Amino acid sequence: MSASAYHPHDHQGCISTALQQAAILCAEQGVRLTPIRKRVLELVWQSHKPIGAYDLLPALAADGFNSAPPTVYRALDFLLDLGLVHRLASLNAFIGCSQPGHDHQSCFLICKVCDKASEMDVEPWFTALTDAAKTQGFSVESQITEVVGTCPQCSKDSSKDSSQKSAGQNS
Amino acid sequence: MSASAYHPHDHQGCISTALQQAAILCAEQGVRLTPIRKRVLELVWQSHKPIGAYDLLPALAADGFNSAPPTVYRALDFLLDLGLVHRLASLNAFIGCSQPGHDHQSCFLICKVCDKASEMDVEPWFTALTDAAKTQGFSVESQITEVVGTCPQCSKDSSKDSSQKSAGQNS
DNA sequence: GTGTGAATTGTAATATTATAACCTTTTATT
DNA sequence: AATAAAAGGTTATAATATTACAATTCACAC
Fold it and tell me: DSSP of B87-134, one letter per residue?
């Protein structure tokens, strides 16, 4: 959860937690977490990096699900609406939300070396932006902040050798 | 310049200022502001809203320039590299930079009513963001923040009537 | 001022991401 | 079972962006 996505961790645990939370959230909202939606959420979480919509299609096909763009976009839209996944506009890719259900403004730290991304809570940042915008008469509704840099794992790796690109620290 | 983009203003002045600044910047950097590049910059500035790459093509064609996607993307890439324009990832659109040459972290306030966008300096809070990331071991390189909300002009308009979509306040 | 290499532009094709439109199936409810 | 709403299937296409390579123009050395 707060176990900074870049480090090795029990990712299977992350996935099942996410699926459980999703089931609860859908029940609360009275909406259906259908097999396709559930599978898409699982696939998004399974990826160690933000994943593109089209990258989900082969896996869906392999599972015997229908596999055409509208299918996956519908599922993603559903998950986005519920806040179960986020879309990273700068990457045209999707990532699981680590605090679904909490209506929060988030910020993504995207590592330019390993391409992984992690969500950071930025309530103070958001408050500052909102206030600053307000002094200009602009009323804020939502925001996306996407930060590019180097994650701790890759910083560490590069201080040792210098050839890594998403090597090692998986799952 | 800091005349909050949403309000009526001498936009022709904005454009010529931008072109002059661009010429200076290119001279400083020893790069060429060719006719195509200059025209693309002008067109981007001429637009009252962030403008898509493909929306630039007809105007280029009308000017007798070559008009194919690579042409405009090359020009845009050139301008992006120099910091003369920004790309708004959430809109797949481009907008002129109001402080070119100043290596700055900015934030865009995008009005969901009139679709115009304005750049806000976030240097003051950027430090806080960077520090927060640093406590997680993430070293920040760059950042994009795109805020959606309602601009002052549209807020004012909607308090009077309720049917406006980019009407009126042009140029 | 000519030759040379680098930068820029032209051109055609194609990749990638996302949506529209319409029809069929499934689900929940009566 | 009848019905309406939701979800999914299917085909086509829109919108955004890039690759690859050829032709041209430019800057600079000679």
Answer: EETTTTEEEE-SSTTS---EEEEEETTT--EEEEE-HHHHHHHHHHHH
3-state secondary structure of A147: strand
Q: Report the predicted TM-score, pTM, of the whole model to 2 decimal places.
A: 0.91
Which nucleotide does the CA of A94 lie closest to, via C1'?
C17
Q: Quick one: B116 exposed, middle or buried, by C-beta within 10 A (0-12, 13-18, 19+)?
A: buried
A64-73 LR contacts (CB < 8 Å, sep 24+)? A65/A35, A65/A36, A65/A39, A66/A36, A71/A36, A72/A40
d(CA A166, CA A170): 8
Residue type, A134: K
Query: pLDDT for B28-53, tens place per residue?
Result: 999 999 999 999 999 999 998 999 99
DSSP helix/strand/coil, A133: helix
- Chain A residues with beta carbon closer than 8 angstroms to that of B152: 136-138
Contacts with A118 from chain B: Cβ below 8 Å: 136, 138
Burial of B81 (0-12, 13-18, 19+ CB in 10 A): exposed
CB contact under 8 A, B144 and A90: yes
Q: State whether A149 and B129 contact (CB < 8 Å).
A: no
**What 3-state DSSP class applies to B170?**
coil
Of B125, B139, B152, the CB nearest to A150: B139
Contact A21, A99 (CB under 8 A): no
* Residue B29, phi-psi category: left (phi > 0), alpha (psi -120 to 50), beta (remainder): alpha
Burial grade of B78 (CB within 10 A; 0-12, 13-18, 19 or more):
buried
A4 and B CB contact within 8 Å: yes
**pLDDT digits over B106-129, tens only?**
999 999 999 999 999 999 899 999
B150/A139 CB distance under 8 A:
yes
Contacts of A122 in chain B (CB under 8 A): 129, 132
Cα–Cα distance measured from residue A19 to residue A38, given in angstroms and rounded to the nearest whole number: 7
A73 touches strand C (CB under 7 A): yes
